[in-house]
């Protein structure tokens, strides 16, 4: 077990055949608190060292005897794609730099490299490695095995405790065939929750989705229950409804809060009796599907206004999942932000972009009324307009401002005694480490 004072968790591996250069790099890192450093002056040993244990960053020289740095870079890219590689070399050639970046190098520095740039590059690489490790943990293990089927939640990026509790709840209700109601604001990821629930039950079974908003009663009945030949003018052939198509799987009814009153009655019968009538048929058919409904509307208010049946609500909400808005899971914003930046850069055919601390602070403070969907939209726009390779606060300030928050979360400029707090009253208090980092970023 490594000493607790070492940083980062896994060592930074320095590879250079020049002993003096190797020692100089190691000393520069240790002086700046990056104390977990491993040194290698024989390039022939790198392959076995990488195989024996994980490393957080690989700092690599190019021109070395026996095995060249470019060969090691190729090896790392193929066998250890999550390992950030920084090339530090005396080869000052644009073609070589481009070739290394295409092979996966995170950065390319020419000797003699400025210590500030070296430290900054290694710190950024460590942060990238941590993000990749977190994503892999969420995708493969999710809370070190506390979830029985973490792979089902892989598309949902989060480290928020409330979200992880929801995942555990979803696992517990997965074997049930009772209806599930998923509520939450626009853009929080309700559709991803539906897909996760489907993956937990039986990913080979059908998942059929339909948006019921604006459907009149006849269209709703025909869509869900189907019709017999000759049921109405133009019904030349028999039509299977979505209930039948979703047999042994999940029928997802989106925007259930906008379902008209007559259709609510028919849906209630489907849920209560487990049967339905295709249009033009007097024979009831048994339904063998699980209904999952989603909405961004407050069904409690709709019930009070007489727009949504109480009995239907009780039937739909046998299992109820309330997806929290992004402002209640601010600890997820950095994770979602970096993923959105990488996704946008890949879609636009751009090189990977970094995000400044000022931009990160601005985005963490923002309340995101459009939630994750808004974040992805704003990030995509910022990446498409940026030509510097680094997203700053100015890239977002046009569309993101400090939200009108409660006095407890944002200090009033008129009150010099007011204290700025980067979290709301309902959020968990930060750890000492998190608070220290937030204060440093605010001071900068």
Task: Give the helices and strands, then pairings.
Elements: E1 12-15, H1 19-31, E2 37-40, H2 46-52, E3 57-60, H3 69-79, E4 85-89, H4 94-102, E5 107-110, H5 115-140, H6 161-173, E6 180-183, H7 190-201, E7 207-211, H8 217-225, E8 226-227, E9 239-240, H9 242-245, E10 250-254, H10 261-273, E11 275-276, E12 285-286, E13 290-295, H11 299-304, H12 310-316, E14 319-322, H13 333-347, E15 354-355, H14 357-365, H15 371-385, E16 390-391, H16 394-397, H17 432-443
Parallel strand pairs: 1-2, 1-3, 3-4, 4-5, 6-13, 6-14, 7-10, 10-13, 15-16
Antiparallel strand pairs: 8-9, 11-12
Helix pairs in contact: 10-12, 13-15
Can you describe this structure?
There is one protein chain. The relative contact order is 0.08. The protein has helices at 19-31, 46-52, 69-79, 94-102, 115-140, 161-173, 190-201, 217-225, 242-245, 261-273, 299-304, 310-316, 333-347, 357-365, 371-385, 394-397, 432-443, and strands spanning 12-15, 37-40, 57-60, 85-89, 107-110, 180-183, 207-211, 226-227, 239-240, 250-254, 275-276, 285-286, 290-295, 319-322, 354-355, 390-391. The protein is an alpha/beta fold and 444 residues long. 42% of the residues lie in helices and 13% in strands. The longest helix has 26 residues, at 115-140. It has 17 helices and 16 strands. Strand 3 (57-60), helix 3 (69-79) and strand 4 form a beta-alpha-beta unit. The strands form five sheets. The protein has a five-stranded parallel β-sheet with strand order 2-1-3-4-5, sandwiched between helices.
């Amino acid at each position: 077990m490594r000493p607790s004072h070492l940083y980062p968790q896994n060592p930074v591996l320095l590879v250079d055949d020049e002993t003096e250069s190797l020692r100089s790099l190691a000393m520069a890192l240790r002086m700046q608190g990056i104390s977990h450093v491993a040194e290698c002056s024989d390039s022939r040993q790198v392959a076995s060292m990488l195989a024996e244990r994980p490393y957080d960053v690989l700092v690599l020289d190019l021109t070395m005897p026996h095995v060249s740095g470019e060969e090691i870079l190729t090896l790392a890219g193929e066998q250890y794609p999550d390992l950030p590689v920084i090339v530090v070399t005396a080869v000052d050639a644009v073609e070589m730099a481009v070739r290394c970046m295409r092979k996966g190098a995170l950065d390319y520095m020419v000797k003699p490299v400025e210590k500030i740039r070296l430290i900054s590059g290694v710190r950024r690489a460590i942060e990238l490695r941590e993000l990749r490790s977190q994503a892999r943990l969420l995708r493969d293990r999710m809370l070190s095995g506390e979830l029985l089927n973490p792979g089902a939640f892989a598309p949902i990026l989060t480290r928020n405790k409330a979200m992880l509790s929801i995942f555990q709840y979803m696992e517990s209700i997965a074997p049930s065939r009772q209806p599930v109601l998923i509520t939450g604001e626009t853009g929080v990821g309700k559709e991803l929750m539906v897909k996760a629930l489907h993956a937990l039950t039986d990913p080979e079974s059908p998942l059929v989705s339909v948006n019921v908003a604006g459907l009149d009663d006849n269209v709703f009945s025909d869509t869900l229950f189907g019709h017999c030949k000759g049921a109405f003018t133009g019904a030349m052939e028999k039509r299977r409804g979505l209930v039948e198509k979703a047999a042994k799987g999940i029928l997802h009814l989106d925007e259930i809060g906008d379902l008209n009153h007559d259709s609510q009655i028919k849906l209630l019968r489907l849920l209560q009796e487990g049967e339905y009538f295709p249009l033009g048929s007097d024979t009831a058919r048994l339904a063998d599907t699980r209904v999952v409904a989603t909405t961004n509307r407050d069904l409690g208010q709709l019930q009070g206004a007489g727009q949504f049946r109480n009995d239907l609500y009780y039937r739909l909400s046998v299992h109820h999942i309330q997806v929290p808005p992004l402002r209640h899971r601010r600890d997820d914003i950095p994770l979602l932000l970096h993923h959105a930046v990488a996704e946008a850069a890949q879609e636009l055919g751009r090189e990977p972009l970094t995000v400044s601390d000022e931009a990160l602070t601005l985005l963490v403070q923002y309340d995101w009324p459009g939630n994750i969907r808004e974040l992805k939209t704003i990030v995509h726009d910022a990446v498409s307009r940026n030509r510097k390779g680094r997203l700053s606060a100015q890239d977002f300030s046009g569309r993101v401002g400090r939200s009108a928050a409660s006095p407890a979360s944002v200090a009033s400029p008129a009150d010099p005694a007011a204290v700025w707090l980067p979290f709301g009253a309902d959020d968990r208090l930060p750890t000492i480490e998190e608070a220290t980092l937030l204060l440093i970023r605010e001071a900068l």
